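Margin note from the TA: students keep mixing up input and output lines. Inputs are the sequences; the output is the structure of the whole complex. Example:
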Amino acid sequence: MMWYESAGRDNDVAVSSRVRLARNLTDYPFGSLLNDASAKEIIERVKNVFEGVGDYTFTDYSDLEEIERKAAVEKHKVSAEFASSKKPRALIESERKQVYIMTPEEDHIRIQSILAGFSLEEALSRAREADETIDGALNVAYNDKLGYLTHCPTNLGTGMRASVMLFLPALTISGGIRALSAQLGKIGLTIRGMSGEGSSADGCLYQVSNQITLGISEEEIVSKLSKITESIIEKERNLRQKIKSADNGRFEDRVMRSYGVMMYATMIDTNEMMRLYADVRLGAALGIIDGASLSELDKMMVRGMAANLTCENKEIKTPEERDRARAELIRRILSGAE
Amino acid sequence: MLCERCKKNEATVFYKETINGKTKSYSLCAECAAEAEKAGDIETPHMDAFFSSPSIGGIDSLFGSLFSVPHYAKRALSEGNAETKKCSLCGSAFGDLVKRGKVGCPKCYEVFADELDATIREIHGTTTHTGSAPKRFKHDRELKQKIKNLEAELKEAIKDENYERAAEIRDEVKALKEKEEN
Ligand SMILES: [Zn+2]
Ligand SMILES: [Zn+2]
């Protein structure tokens, strides 16, 4: 099971929660200086640690087809850097725990836990469990002053990045993101658009995460981020009500039009999907639409992305075929057939 | 419909608001809407601006200052010193770390501790870890914490002129520090 396949707490705003721990072994250079032989050694050592532990499985990413690797990025299972790397590398994952361990990435080991909705504490506890398994078996690079040692000094200390993916259409429309960004910066947090690269149709998805990793404990990071997330959620909800009541039915009309396109269009490209996703998700969150659940829409958004769609429909050759397959997938999900 | 301000672009932002019985309405293009918003003329959002997500500035600015070379390291670099001192595990000189923007290996953090200090402080505002530790360091950490707590208690005792208690604490700290040495 992955985050987009279940409904989590506060998922009208919080789509997913993630905790990542960066770890390195004492006797090797960091990621970018690692030669292939050392990378293979590290993979072997980490693989051995998880052999027979829970339901952990091992996938050699060096042999994996490009489309499969890209699909894993779209699911947030692995980083783009990891997917496109030319070095030997592997993913060790527990489907049950929703924990994904990349080795090696920029750091030798990157443990990630991603859960549906607003669930940072649980994500931390699952990532930690994997960390303890590693700690018991391997010498992890650490010094008493700087904490866990990492390739980039921005990750020193806890080596931890906690983040929540938030659906913020009302804050986006109101232009409140910029102010929020400035506020967060002052307290060591950041917000960034999910799609990056200035793409406009990004489904109003943002990631809020901690910037500082040193001089703050793991629990403090989670509690700080949680408190801020709660206040962003409240603000977003208030703005949504304001939009809903402020514009004489125009908003409802827009939501229903997008829903109509979703239900009946026969070709939908990625940009259009993301626009429809944002409209309909907001409509569903406000109870204007009851034919589509929030988690169905999240599932649609991930499985409708280019690489995932192509993985599921290997016969797709042209962009037109992909847009048709996407429209079909959306209809199937909305009708409850998927 | 054309934007009512510039009368050139297609209007994409529509907004209507009723305050104290007075209804204000706007039909603006995205650019004029942004201007109006900046000027404080309109405040509440509308669905039609949905697509234009604002670009968020300032996030990566932190990374721009990463590895700003501290003045003493600059001097070392210019004297060629930084090229001669090399990490025994990965072979990096401090100049390599600066060029790369990243540290070479765990050992580099020992070898270039002084050179990296300012950068780390600049990023995190501190250079002291307070989070969790691997098992093999945990005992050490707990001991250190105990000593720290006792030393704080000692200060209190002295302030309260409780010299008997202060002497006790001093002995405890001494014992713990000996334990730490071993
Ligand atoms: Zn205009
Ligand atoms: Zn080194």
